[in-house]
Every structure is written in structure tokens, then in C-alpha cells.
Design a protein that fits this description.
single chain; about 70 residues; three-stranded antiparallel beta sheet; 3 strands
Length: about 70
């Protein structure tokens, strides 16, 4: 979400194996967050869970971290 605009990137069958594994991982990350590396960059992930029409929905926040280079 940025300025009231967000993007949906997945629509999985809720009972499917992939969806169950993703929910477990998102819940484990939670608000405490985690750091990941992708394509040579470091990112901070945080996950908020909210109710959407009686079901859990997830808002994932991804922030790029500054490069830590030694000079």
C-alpha cells in the first residue's frame, strides 16, 4: 500500500498446500519482521494480519535496506 493503493500478487486456493505453507510463513514473520536478501540487495519484511470479510488477510511491507559497504 502506498497512498491508498496496493497490489495483489497472489490468489491461491485457501486449502491448497502452497497457500497453507505461505500462511504459516507470513504468521511466523509477523510484525517483528525479518530480513531477506534478493538479487544482491537486502530487504526488511513485516507482515500485518487483518480481517477481510471474516477471513484473515495479510499486508506485507517490503523495504529495501541501504547497502552496507565497507570503505
Amino acid at each position: 500500500m502506498k497512498g491508498g493503493v496496493g497490489f495483489g500478487i497472489a490468489n491461491l486456493e485457501s486449502s491448497g498446500e502452497e497457500a497453507c505453507a505461505l500462511r504459516e510463513q507470513l504468521c511466523a514473520i509477523g510484525k517483528k519482521g525479518t530480513t531477506i536478501s534478493a538479487d544482491g540487495a537486502t530487504f526488511r519484511l513485516q507482515v500485518n494480519t487483518y480481517d477481510s470479510f471474516g477471513e484473515d488477510a495479510f499486508r506485507v511491507r517490503i523495504q529495501r535496506r541501504p547497502d552496507k559497504r565497507v570503505h
